[in-house]
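User: I'm writing a tutorial on reading structure tokens. Could you give me a worked example: one chain, its sequence, then its tokens, then a sentence or two explaining what the tokens reveal?
Assistant: Sure. Here is the example chain.
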Amino acid sequence: MTSSNDPVEPTDVPDSGGATLELARFPETLAVVRLAAGSDLPEWAESSSVFAIVANATHTTLVCAGRSVPRKVPQRKPFTAFAVEARHEGAESTTERVPGDLTALLALLVPLAEAGLEAVPVPTFDADWVLVPAAQADRAEEAWRRSGHSIAPAVPV
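And here are its predicted structure tokens:
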């Protein structure tokens, strides 16, 4: 048992409850961009496999295609996006999946943390996404496969 001041070790995280996760890897390069608080959507912002805007009182964060982001704009890139769908053991479909499900998110993030990899989770209404630095994407796939998850190329819509 750990006290509230002790760090949480990966082994202290509950298991995924039998969930195996199916991830789809998207080929495009993404960027995480910092804009001023209250910014309008810039003309250069292009939607991509995942396009997200999160705003608070101090700044606006934009996840978008990295190809058109001006160099002068504060940004981190390149990222590779993985879309996540959970299949619970014995489930017929993915309809039981709840976006933002902490158990599923932990089942994805813990293997990456144990492998020393970075990740940026991006929840949406229907699915969760995990952005991984492009240089670490293959290593992320390996970590997930070792944890029992599967990864396939994304099927374009």
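What the tokens reveal: DSSP finds two helices and eight strands in the chain. The longest helix spans residues 102-114.
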